[in-house]
Amino acid sequence: MMALIVCSLSAVLFPGSACCSKEGQDNLSQLPTKGMVTMLDLGANKCIPCKMMAPIIEELKQEYERKASIVFIDVWEHREQAQKYGIRVIPTQIFFDKNGKEFFRHEGFMDKKSIVRILGKLSVTSN
To answer: Residue 38: pLDDT above 90?
Structure first.
């Protein structure tokens, strides 16, 4: 819980932080991906729980390639995305079904097993 508070406060104190991955951030207006289950991980690279999730997100991108769109958005660089999705704390994960409807939302660190379980509920399996 303390890490969430620190992360939230650090977003205000360090607004110029760089994103840990800019991949997929050129087309933010096209998210969620049409016709594909989408998971958005909204966070920042200086946030401790976000850093802990980074390798998980990279693994999932590879394991679910062409089956689900898994995108990290740095909300410090893209504040409008934080507003668009109503982000209160980072990290926040939002899962959308193939029709772009929000299916599930989680605030805070989310382990790989939990993410895989939600993707499974959306009928997505890894490669």
So the answer is: yes
